[in-house]
């Protein structure tokens, strides 16, 4: 079976069938929608995919964090099929369907937010989830502004692309929404030299406080929005002591804390959400937005908040035609059942321990491996020219990606300078597949450096 296979390349990439399809793509699809790999999928199972030419790849990207339970899980296929035989769609503003309620009840049970009584609404994408979280915060507080951070990625809608740090995602799209102000995210590897971690946390906390002096007074700030682990920004985790400091600032100033767990959610971190770690440390968010792996590839996102907050939203502000679609809700309920039953949080930590040990050995061996970081099974390896100067080495990462794809491993870059390799492997990967992937990536580093 494909799900038990190892990587196997039988034809140079792209193969003849893939080449023909990629030519059609070039003619039919905007060039701005880039394709990183010369690969056209024909089927996928577990952590593996097969292309139209019969090449078999180990996928360490997983649809950029969408496939935590892997491709084509048989139970997920059956759940969606069973729902499809009843009805595809029922808009919640018109007629109630029970799947939406059942999934909302489950999310209210598992999502860690500050208020004990919670409510959940659904949308279709990560950007929609973040945008709705911001609307909820503004409507509840009556305040106009939000604070985001350097390195942030929150989506490609006009609002969320403005919230996103990297301006390549919004070049030429102005005028942009007002009231979005940016603090400095604690990127400890590239933080001020000579500071201990404790002093660095103080430094970044003071930087946030200065936003209130230099950009927006606190009484006009509805929410602070952050990713618990920055994704596109380079897989940079928010230090828990800094999160605690931000939570304290929010509580003192009447600001809501929004966790953007679009990419970090659903067992990736070793817990269902990174915010579970926050809750244990006494700094749970007020609102949590998530998407990606929630429904195993069926478009769905969720926004969970304290009931007091979400019930404070004015009528007409939230909702939408497809949010909480019946097929997507059926898929999400099965995904959560599989994660809990098969202890994929535990499996995430097992995979992470093995990979972290290997990645750290490369850090000791290769001058070009500068930093290894992340939470659980969401890890990044930052590549540099040398350890003294820490100059970003995007060229090496580009060469590594090409080598890996030609040898049956799909990995992806991240970071402001595209010099970080991200690890988002499906959590159902076998030990043999994981070993094979580590071997290919190590060979890529040795060959390309």
Structural write-up:
- With 449 residues, the protein is α/β, with parallel strands linked by helices.
- It folds into two domains: 2-59 and 343-448, Aspartate Aminotransferase, domain 1 (Alpha-Beta Complex); 79-341, 3-Layer(aba) Sandwich (Aspartate Aminotransferase, domain 2), CATH 3.40.640.
- The protein has 14 helices and 17 strands.
- Strands 4-12-11-10-7-5-6 form a seven-stranded mixed sheet, with helices on both faces. Strands 1-2-3-15 form a four-stranded mixed sheet.
- A hairpin with a 5-residue loop joins β16 and β17 (420-423).
- α3 runs antiparallel to α11 and α12 (344-365) packs parallel to α14.
- The chain is globular and about 60 Å long.
- Its EC number is 2.6.1.19, 2.6.1.22.
- Its cofactor is pyridoxal 5'-phosphate.
- One of its GO terms (molecular function) is pyridoxal phosphate binding.
- It catalyses: 4-aminobutanoate + 2-oxoglutarate = succinate semialdehyde + L-glutamate; (S)-3-amino-2-methylpropanoate + 2-oxoglutarate = 2-methyl-3-oxopropanoate + L-glutamate.
- Pathway: Amino-acid degradation; 4-aminobutanoate degradation.
How would you summarize what this structure contains?
This protein is an alpha/beta fold and 449 residues long.
């Amino acid at each position: 079976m494909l799900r038990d296979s190892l990587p196997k390349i039988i034809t140079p990439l792209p193969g003849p069938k893939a080449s023909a399809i990629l030519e059609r793509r070039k003619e039919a699809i905007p060039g701005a929608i880039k394709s990183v790999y010369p690969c056209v999928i024909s089927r996928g199972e577990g952590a593996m995919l097969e292309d139209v030419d019969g090449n078999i790849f180990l996928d360490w990207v997983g649809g950029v964090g969408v496939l935590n339970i892997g491709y084509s899980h048989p139970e997920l296929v059956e759940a969606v099929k069973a729902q499809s035989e009843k009805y595809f769609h029922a808009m919640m503003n018109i007629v109630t369907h029970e799947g939406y309620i059942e999934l909302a009840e489950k999310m209210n049970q598992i999502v860690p937010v500050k208020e004990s009584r919670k409510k959940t609404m659904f949308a279709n994408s990560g950007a929609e989830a973040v945008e709705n979280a911001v609307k909820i915060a503004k409507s509840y507080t009556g305040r106009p502004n939000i604070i985001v951070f350097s390195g942030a990625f929150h989506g490609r809608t006009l609002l969320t692309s403005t919230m996103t740090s990297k301006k390549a995602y919004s070049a030429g799209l102005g005028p942009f929404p007002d009231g979005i102000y940016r603090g400095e995210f604690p990127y400890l590897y590239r933080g001020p030299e000579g500071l201990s971690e404790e002093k660095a946390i103080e430094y970044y906390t003071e930087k946030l406080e200065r936003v209130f002096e230099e950009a927006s007074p606190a009484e006009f700030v509805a929410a602070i929005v952050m990713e618990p682990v920055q994704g596109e920004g380079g897989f940079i985790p928010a230090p828990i002591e800094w999160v605690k400091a931000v939570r304290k600032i929010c509580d003192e100033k009447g600001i809501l804390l929004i966790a953007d767990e679009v990419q970090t959610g659903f067992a990736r971190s070793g817990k269902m959400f990174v915010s579970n770690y926050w809750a244990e440390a006494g700094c749970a968010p007020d609102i949590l937005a998530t998407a990606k792996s929630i429904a195993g590839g069926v478009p769905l996102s969720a926004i969970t908040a304290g009931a007091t907050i979400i019930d404070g939203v004015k009528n007409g502000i939230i909702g939408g035609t497809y949010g909480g679609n019946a097929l997507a809700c059926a898929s999400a309920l099965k995904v959560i059942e599989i994660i809990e039953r098969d202890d994929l949080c535990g499996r995430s930590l097992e995979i992470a321990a093995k990979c972290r040990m290997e990645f750290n050995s490369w850090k000791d061996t290769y001058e070009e491996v500068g930093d290894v970081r992340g939470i659980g099974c969401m890890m990044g390896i930052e590549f540099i020219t040398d350890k003294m100067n820490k100059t970003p080495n995007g060229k090496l990462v580009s060469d590594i990606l090409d080598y890996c794809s030609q040898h049956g491993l799909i990995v992806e870059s991240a970071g402001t300078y595209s010099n970080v390799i991200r690890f988002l492997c499906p959590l159902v990967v076998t030990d043999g597949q994981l070993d094979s992937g580590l071997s290919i990536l190590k060979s890529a580093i040795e060959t390309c450096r």
